[in-house]
Amino acid sequence: MGAGPTPGRITQTSSATRGAIGESTLRPDGTLKVTGEFAYSSDLWHEDMLWGFTLRSPYAHAEIRSIDTAEALAVPGVHAVMTHDDLPAATHYGLEIHDQPVLAEGRVRYHGEAVAIVAADHPETARRAAARIKVVYAELPPVVDEATATAPDAPVLHPGRADHHASHVPHPNIVHRQPVRRGDVVAARARADVVVRRDYEVGMQDQAFLGPESGLAVPAEDGGVDLYIATQWLHVDRDQLAPVLGLPADKVRLTLSGVGGAFGAREDLSMQAHACLLALRTGRPVKIVYNRYESFFGHVHRHPAKLTYEHGATRDGQLLYVQCRIVLDGGAYASSSPAVVGNAASLAIGPYVVDNVDVEAIALYSNNPPCGAMRGFGAVQACFAYEAQMDAVAQELGLDPVEFRQRNAMSQGAVMPTGQVVDSPAPVAELLRRVKAMPMPPERPGVPPDGVWGRLAADRSTDVRALPGGLSNTTHGEGVVRGVGYAVGIKNVGFSEGFDDYSTARIRLEVINGEPVALVHTAMAEVGQGGVTVHAQIARTELGVGQVTIHPADTQVGSAGSTSASRQTYMTGGAVKHTCEAVREEVLRRGRERFGSCHPAWATAGLLLEGGKVVTDGGEVIGDLAEIVGDEPVELELEFRHRPTEPFDLETGQGFGHVQYSFCAHRAVVEVDIELGLVKVIELAAAQDVGKALNPLSVVGQIQGGSTQGLGLAVMEEIVVSEGARVRNPSFTDYLIPTILDTPTIPVDVLELADDNAPYGLRGVGEAPTLSSTPAVVAAVRAATGLPLKRVPIRPEHLTGC
Amino acid sequence: MRVNFTVNGRPQQADDVWEGESLLYVLRERMGLPGSKNACEQGECGSCTVRLDGAPVCACLVAAGQAEGREVVTVEGLAEFAERRGAAASGGATIASGGTEQTSGTGLDEARRRQPRPGGSAPLAPVQQAFIDAGAVQCGFCTPGLLVAADELLERHPDPSDADIREALSGNLCRCTGYEKILDAVRLAAARTREEG
Ligand code: FES
Ligand code: FES
């Protein structure tokens, strides 16, 4: 690429950043990030570059009668305007089902759908030109929920579906349906002493990563294109882009540029195709940067859900059966809805042993915004409902909610509702015990221990910043009640249901200035989670070198799979480990060849690489790594797979569907101003089993960050879709995410029970904490108020009854 | 139009600035200083926080023309800014604390004496190092704005309570960290600065 900043190599050389696995090694990109030098995708620049802009539909469901681009093209500074008619090749793409139009064709299916794109010499010129494109729409009635989607006269959103789910769904407006059946629910119901049946609802949450969708497409001399992009999976982007651009895959080269968070929202294409199309059309580099408003339309969200749960238990607190139905709104296009359905169905019961289960999960096509991947991926919605149910059943039985959960908690060897045996540690009861045993935050001065409100009107000693309402000075403690709530959840790690999940690493061991240096090249998207740190730690551990260079992630190496499903430390970390082991074998083979005859230790097994030397397991140094490698670097590229999984049976949901499970428990302490309906989370404690903490500092950071997103869903975060399926709050003014004032202290207790099937025994970390923090906060608000609270996010009116 | 201002101690000129351009756009796209981030461009996230005549502001809400004749410090100049402040403090010089403006820190005269250092070779500001050491950086997109805001807090208030830190940083969104390690980092920077001072 030309003059612009590209992501540089990330090199760790100083002793301060050395570290093997298990150490809290600091991020190799930390210095660049704190000095402002780290090149995020929105920072890229090229001297000839144009700016792209997208014209989006103001309607959720409408026929496009005509599009007139003449006036836009006449604006000085405009270089190209493209609509569906200008597409050179494939017109649709998608992660699994290719139903997403590159630019709308004849019909728009959601508010904000891309209709036309413009390239101009200034972002404002592009915006103004787009406003001059004349589109004539004829509005159609929108499909907004299950009733309108499956009504007899419902408009079919994707007529003539040919995807592989089309044949088994009960209605063409249902993307996918997955039942899970085990045991005999009817018989179990007859034996139940207590039955609790309730409806729940989860609003539409947004990933709200901070770094906007952006990238720079540069046309190449060979007719191809180089795209510098913030994404979660370079190869799957490329595989969707090449057919759209009409180019062979090897002419579409992607390099990861700095990613400002992802959380699932970068799994689908956003501006990738648009920037490449404009670049190829104009012959100039094209940069697109979404503003925050556009970002809310430019990516998929977390599926909003309606859930119905019925739990039956015996008087002594044993769960007999669970019956539930989960309706996820997938919005206009499929995205990853089928996999989200599989997760919601298979994890619907939570980390409990229940012999009799009847689950159905579906995802709808609707005219609401498309929904897809977000941290927790289908397990979040279910966890909110089943944990509320666990509290409700415990209450009916007069049991302590933690005790009730522990009595039913799964452990290693338990059978999932899918029939899968949980074959690694599942310390559910222990995590609950730990989180309960953590010291409680101090009582606020002035709050009587029994939390009775109404006695504190005269108390002026409390810092109002610590109270609900904070600096708004809405209370001095009067009307404030405290509550405590618990929750625990189960999440799968890695891709499931028979997906061929693999990652690739290329490792090069060479000598530079007399020092052995390892170069790690993978296509893993570092989205902030710290994978680059861990890869260097693994390479240092396996190769015994001090210096590790992380090559920028690009499509010049084999696929790493997605940075999602808590899988990258397992999968790409596993690939780095696996490949380093092979490199080590090659080094030892060379050493044996060269020195074996004169040094008997070479013949013994158990040789290690440590501190740049080859040592015996007894600690004797028998060779110098730099000397063995010499000027012939060792370079290998290998793939790593987790053990295979299998698809769930379409009617019974049985099958070895998930490769690994992870567990996290939370305790929330909240204070609620019940007069104004304001909630302040005082503390959110977490306990999680991570198998093996490769980098304890990062692990804790992930747990705290994930917990905070769950807190957001509990009390503030929702994309509001109103009449006509239009998005009402696409801004940070109106879509609220937790600030530092909304986020409490998050003490974390990390448990390390190895999973023998995983590299180093590790367990994916990133998602599990997002599950249980939401129900824990809501349980605490219920405890404080006595209200049933069946919907998140909780709004003030839910608490005040107004 | 043309805008003349000082950025990180260096007099700068931006030409052909369109009247609607923000200070953030001019810094990022015309000055080649993309360190200040563009996460919302509507004054809600704090990612674009810079100091304008010492006061922390959202650069996305400042029209470029408003910066005429004024002093801007961005994350790119933070290390040097902190170093100068440290030197001034240890040399016994007083740093103007901004008079009536509580939010203002380094005085104008002090800022004017600053010269750019070639290659940005200043060691990291204490708050920058603390963010790295405490694990307060994940994706890092919020980091530049948080650093500028936190540095200004510590200048004004060398020993802030947790409530003070939360209040000062409440305009800076971070989606990754859950803020706990950001609090750790600010406490760490405060402690180190006190020890050194
Ligand atoms: S970019 Fe300026 S406040 Fe968000
Ligand atoms: S580290 Fe990603 S937004 Fe703060």
How much beta of chain A, percentage-wise?
25-35%
Number of helices of chain A: 18
Helix share, percent of chain A: 10-25%
Which pair of chains forms the biggest interface, and how many residues does each contribute?
A-B, 64 and 59 residues
Instruction: Report the uncertain regions of chain A.
Output: 1-9, 11-17, 451-458
Main sheet of chain A: which strands, in order across? 4-8-2-15-12-13-14
User: What structural class do helix, strand and pairing data of chain B support?
Assistant: alpha+beta
* Main beta-sheet annotation of chain A: 7 strands, mixed
Distance between the termini of chain A: 59 Å
Mean pLDDT of chain A: 94
Strand content of chain B: 5-15%
C-alpha-based Rg of chain B, rounded: 16 Å
H/E series of chain B = EEHEEEHHHHHH
Shape of chain A, please? Answer: globular
Main beta sheet of chain B: strand number and arrangement?
5 strands, mixed
Strand segment tally of chain B: 5
Q: How would you sum up this structure, described in words?
A:
Chain A is α+β, with helices and mostly antiparallel strands and 802 residues long. Helices cover 25% and strands 25% of the residues of chain A. In chain A, a hairpin with a 5-residue loop joins strand 12 (214-219) and strand 13 (225-229). Chain A is globular and about 80 Å long. Mean pLDDT of chain A is 94; it is low at 1-9, 11-17 and 451-458. Helix content of chain B is 38%, strand content 11%. Chain B is built from seven helices and five strands. A five-stranded mixed β-sheet of chain B has the order 2-1-5-3-4, sandwiched between helices. The longest helix of chain B is centred in the C-terminal third of the chain and has 17 residues, at 180-196. The radius of gyration of chain B is 16 Å and the shape is globular. At the A-B interface, helix 1 and helix 16 of A face helix 4, helix 5, helix 6 and helix 7 of B. The structure holds FE2/S2 (inorganic) cluster (FES) (2 copies).
